Amino acid sequence: MSAPQDRDASTKGVAPMRKYIAAAAVVFALAGVNGAMAKDLKATIKKVDAATSSITLDNGQSVTLPAGVKAASLKAGDKVLITYSTDAAGKATVQSIKPSK
Predict the structure, then answer these.
(1) Is residue 9 a part of any domain in this protein?
(2) Most exposed residue of 7, 42, 67, 98, measured as fewest CB within 10 angstroms of its CB?
(3) Is residue 11 part of a domain?
(4) Taking 70 as the threshold, does the pLDDT of residue 99 lie above it?
């Protein structure tokens, strides 16, 4: 008598693959909810507040400068490209500020 055979070879590994696909879907969904995708914003600086390490932009939005960017290096009227992300609560986190044309 022959030994019992495992599952059909064509279905081997299907269940583990489904787990990986499900895990990847959750990661991508959470990334979208948390705003993990970086966004760019071109703006003109309206006001620099060295005391709070923040700037106010021409659209009225106020952003905190990232570590490594000194408020003294910026001035009102500077055109900048800001790269930022937002969390689930809508709070923006600035990753970089660079001069813009």
Answers:
(1) no
(2) 67
(3) no
(4) yes
